[in-house]
Specification:
The chain has two domains: 82 residues, no CATH class; 100 residues, no CATH class. Helices cover 38% and strands 19% of the residues. The protein is built from five helices and eight strands. The strands form two sheets. Strands 1-8-2-6 form a four-stranded mixed sheet. α2 crosses α4 and α4 crosses α5. It is globular and about 45 Å long.
Length: 199
C-alpha cells in the first residue's frame, strides 16, 4: 500500500494493477481526474475522489493477486467493490450456501477472473441465467457457457452474419483536462495490495 501526502483525517485510496507492485509510477493530479503514468505511458485515468475515506477499487487491478491468495478475500477491506453487478453478489451468496466460505471464495474469484479476462458483460448474463434457472452454480459451468457464447459471437463475426461485436458497456467518457495540474511520484510496495493514496 502506498501513502503519499496524507492529511490528518483525509484518506483517499485508488487501486492500480498488481503487476505494478514495487514499481515507480507518476500521478498527475487534475481537478476531476488523476492520470497514472508508468514508463512514459499513461496507463490509467482514475476519477479524482473528494471527501474523507473514499476509495476507487477496480477488481481487474487486484484479481490476479486474489486468485493466488483466495484466503485474503474473506476479510478484504474493500470486498464490496469486488462485486461488479448485483448478479455477481447473488452468485457469491449462492456459492457460500452451496460450498461454504472457503470453497465459495475460490469459486467466486475464478468467476471474477473470467469476467476480467474475457467479458464482464457475458459473464454477468451467464450468472443472471444461472441464478434464475440452475440448481447449482460453479466456475466450470460458468466458464463452459461463457466460452460457448464467446465462440458463437466470434463465429458469427468470421462468418459475416455479425459485422461487429454486440454492444458492450463503454468506458467512461474521456475526461476534459483542466489547465493547471501537479504530479507526484509514487513507489508501490508489496504489502498484499496495489493501492495508492492521494490527498
Amino acid at each position: 500500500m502506498v501513502l503519499t501526502r496524507q492529511m490528518a483525517d483525509l484518506s483517499l485510496r485508488y487501486s492500480l494493477h498488481s503487476r505494478l507492485i514495487g514499481e515507480y509510477v507518476k500521478a498527475r493530479i487534475y481537478a476531476e481526474y488523476i492520470e497514472v503514468w508508468y514508463a512514459q505511458r499513461r496507463i490509467e485515468v482514475l476519477p479524482r475522489l473528494r471527501g474523507e475515506n473514499n476509495h476507487c477499487i477496480n477488481y481487474r487491478h487486484i484479481i490476479d493477486w486474489l486468485v493466488r491468495k483466495p484466503g485474503a478475500f474473506e476479510n478484504y477491506r474493500y470486498k464490496d467493490d469486488l462485486f461488479p453487478t448485483s448478479q455477481f453478489r447473488i452468485t457469491y451468496d449462492l456459492l457460500r450456501s452451496q460450498y461454504g466460505p472457503k470453497q465459495a471464495n475460490k469459486q467466486y474469484l475464478k468467476i471474477l477472473e473470467l469476467a476480467a479476462k474475457d467479458s464482464e458483460t457475458v459473464v454477468n448474463d451467464v450468472l443472471r441465467f444461472l441464478n434464475n434457472q440452475a440448481d447449482e452454480i460453479n466456475f466450470e459451468i460458468v466458464q463452459r457457457i461463457t466460452a460457448d457464447i464467446l465462440s458463437n459471437i466470434l463465429f458469427k463475426i468470421v462468418k459475416g452474419s455479425l459485422t461487429s461485436p454486440p454492444s458492450l458497456p463503454k468506458t467512461p467518457p474521456a475526461m476534459i483536462a483542466v489547465p493547471k495540474s501537479f504530479g507526484c511520484n509514487i513507489r508501490l510496495r508489496n504489502v498484499g495490495e496495489s493501492m495508492c493514496s492521494f490527498s
